[in-house]
Task: inverse folding
């Protein structure tokens, strides 16, 4: 690989970054009689890499940005491998093979380091979290079961919002059965039941013992809550994104602005039927206007954020 090509540097090759062990591998030595846990081995490996201070991160990022310093890029990646694990845990209920999610998240992290501009008003961890999530979500959608989750708009909405909507309704004192959830998400009760069955499965607890003596857990290899909040937060990027969306909305007509705020950007969006009723238009017409607004918004954000297409943002 040529030095000047600007691609992910040599030190980031598989031989240097801790590999995700395969299930079939076995331990050597006295511990060989124990059941081999590839996740434990991987987490033990990434603990060896120290976290970076803000100053260290900025210096390394500038060395990669200006000089394509391969060692600097390598250090940026390995220092953030624990961030990938934390984000992967968030999606394990949707896709049970956590190791696959970590592997995909690592690819997203490397892409983030490759494209990161140290002069932007955003931290590497914030920028990286978007790439990591994008790669993980794309992998889940493409590989989940024989039926892809992203086949229809209804399936995508269920995939991303079912668990959150159930929690919201429970907090309000409701028993969120399939019929109630279907009404809130504008899908059929059968679709809710099917998706709930797919989402069934136990989560891997972060408190599960990591070492054989049981003194450490998975949580111990991740940054503490205060440091983690600082590393994982994407508030800075969200603020920039929100400013651009606000600028974009000023050029919309009344119906377009309403659908942007009440459908595309809303925490609890109206159904198309409800939106159409407010606007005195049909459900189909509301869908057409919404689709047009989404296309305009994507084009606008692509101009403002060159990496927008690659990040594959989900706006609802």
Result:
């Amino acid at each position: 690989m040529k030095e000047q090509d600007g691609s992910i540097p040599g030190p980031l090759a598989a031989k240097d970054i801790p590999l995700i062990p395969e299930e079939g591998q076995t331990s050597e030595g006295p511990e060989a009689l124990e059941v081999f846990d590839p996740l434990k081995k991987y987490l033990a490996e990434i603990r060896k890499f120290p976290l970076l201070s803000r100053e260290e991160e900025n210096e390394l990022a500038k060395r990669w940005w200006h000089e394509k310093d391969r060692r600097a890029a390598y250090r940026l990646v390995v220092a953030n491998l624990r961030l990938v694990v934390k984000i992967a845990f968030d999606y394990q209920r949707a896709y049970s093979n956590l190791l696959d999610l970590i592997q995909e998240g690592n690819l997203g992290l490397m892409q983030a380091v490759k494209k990161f501009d140290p002069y932007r008003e955003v931290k590497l961890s914030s920028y990286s979290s978007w790439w990591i999530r994008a790669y993980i979500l794309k992998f889940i959608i493409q590989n989940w079961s024989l039926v892809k989750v992203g086949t229809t708009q209804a399936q995508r909405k269920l995939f991303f919002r079912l668990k959150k909507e159930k929690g919201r309704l429970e907090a309000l004192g409701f028993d969120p059965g399939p019929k109630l959830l279907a009404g809130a998400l504008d899908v059929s009760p059968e679709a809710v039941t099917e998706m709930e069955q797919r989402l069934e499965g136990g989560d891997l607890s972060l408190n599960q013992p990591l070492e054989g003596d049981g003194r450490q857990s998975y949580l111990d290899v991740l940054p503490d809550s205060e440091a983690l909040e600082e590393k994982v937060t994407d508030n800075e990027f969200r603020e920039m994104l929100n400013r651009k969306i606000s600028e974009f909305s000023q050029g919309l007509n009344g119906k377009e602005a309403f659908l942007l705020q009440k459908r595309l950007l809303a925490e609890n969006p109206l159904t198309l039927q409800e939106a159409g009723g407010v606007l005195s238009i049909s459900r189909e017409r509301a869908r057409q206007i919404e689709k047009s607004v989404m296309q305009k918004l994507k084009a606008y954000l692509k101009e403002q954020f060159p990496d927008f297409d690659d990040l594959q943002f989900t706006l609802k």
Remarks:
- The chain has three domains: 3-144+211-221, 150-199, 236-311.
- Residues 150-199 form one domain.
